[in-house]
Write a structure and sequence with these properties.
Layout: H1 23-26, E1 30-35, H2 41-53, E2 58-63, H3 69-73, E3 84-88, E4 94-99, H4 102-114, H5 117-126, H6 128-135, H7 139-152, E5 175-179, H8 183-190, H9 193-196, H10 204-216, E6 221-227, H11 231-246, E7 251-259, H12 273-282, H13 289-316, E8 323-327, H14 335-347
Parallel strand pairs: 1-5, 1-6, 2-4, 2-5, 6-7, 7-8
Antiparallel strand pairs: 3-4
């Protein structure tokens, strides 16, 4: 991992001299994080929210899949349909969390746009709200992305959890991080233009949908893809990048997770039994033949893995996106691990626009 800094100390460059977190990413307001299941998508979304809130910022971490993953990561009770503080960011600042529920979002729409608060709750008791969000194609995604859009546009005077500067019209959140659906579904989830054709052609929901489309296709939004140095995650990453380009959704960075250090040369022929044994004995370690055989087998597995990773890394470069690298944490991911990953993101230049 290179820590080479650009002249002026603004950014961090990778081995190819490409800035890992360019200004286009720093100035974005909505950071969508996706990735193949099992790559650590939710973990890195949480770490990104912490990193962007550092030095006195305020970020909102949003989930839309109903898994209460944010609560589990930050070791808090299940989140209600309300924004609440879940963590203090490094060097000041805070992260708030929100679990968006499609039914709750629809009830909020009915109350905000149609003044149907009581009627909406009655409809929910009858099961009509669940029926509507299930039956209407695309309605659920429009509701979820619409709530995210509303959070991005919130100003300090609209803070529902206590404002910092009463009356100010500055954005309430310096950044909103969306823990989005995995790569196989994320483009369909974000491309609400298709859903609009089957929904109301006029009225508040149509207007809200158009606002969502404008936000998601603007420089305010970037879509980050979490991957690992394995064939399937890399292939899904490349497929997703192509889909983003086809639908004109703005790409962000590739976040390469669980990167393991190269402790030996890639070429296993460089590590021969005689040289390895001599080196061990020079260090005072004398192994039996069967122990040496086991060690050589592990060396072979390690060098084979390095060769595979070198190949998939070259494929990942085809995405043409800045890359961030996060290591595999030896003790797993707990709350301390999230802060460690956030700090590593900051070391690679991750920051919010000023």
């Amino acid at each position: 991992m290179s820590n080479q800094r650009r002249a002026g100390g603004v950014g961090v460059l990778d081995e190819a001299g490409v800035e890992r977190w360019p200004e286009s990413l720093a100035s974005a307001r909505l950071h969508v994080v996706t990735g193949k299941g099992g790559t650590g998508k939710s973990t890195l979304a949480a770490a990104l929210a912490l990193a962007l809130a550092a030095d006195g910022g305020r970020t909102l971490l949003v989930e839309v899949e109903g898994r209460q993953g944010i609560a589990q990561l930050f070791d808090t009770p299940p989140l209600p349909y309300a924004e609440q503080r879940i963590a203090v960011a490094p060097d000041g600042g805070e992260v708030r969390g929100l679990a968006v529920d499609a039914e709750e979002a629809l009830l909020e729409y009915l109350e905000m746009f149609y003044n149907l608060g009581l009627a909406g709750r009655t409809l929910r008791r009858m099961g009509a709200v669940e029926f509507a969000t299930t039956l209407a194609p695309g309605l659920r995604d429009v509701l979820l992305t619409g709530k995210v859009k509303e959070c991005v546009g919130r100003t300090v005077g609209d803070d529902r959890g206590g404002s910092r500067r009463s009356g100010s019209r500055q954005p309430l959140y310096d950044a909103v991080v969306l823990d989005a659906p995995p790569t196989g579904r994320v483009v369909k989830f974000l491309d609400v233009t298709k859903a609009m054709g089957t929904l109301a052609r006029t009225g508040p929901i149509r207007t809200q949908s158009e606002g969502v489309v404008a936000l998601l296709h603007s420089p305010q939004t970037v879509v980050h893809v979490v991957s690992q140095l394995e064939d399937l995650p890399v292939q899904e990453t490349l497929d997703t990048v192509d889909e983003l380009a086809a639908t004109h959704l703005p790409p962000g960075a590739v976040m390469v997770n669980r990167v393991r250090p190269a402790r030996l040369p890639v070429d296993r022929e460089v590590v021969d039994e005689g040289g390895l044994r001599a080196g061990l004995e020079a260090a005072g370690l004398f192994l039996k033949d069967e122990e040496m055989d086991g060690l050589l087998a592990e060396v072979g597995e390690h060098t084979d893995r390095l060769a595979v990773e070198a190949g998939v890394r070259s494929r990942l470069d085809q995405a043409g996106m800045p890359q961030l690298e996060l290591p595999e944490l030896a003790d797993g991911v707990d709350l301390g691990g999230l802060y460690e990953l956030a700090e590593l993101l900051r070391e690679q230049g991750v920051r919010r626009g000023r």
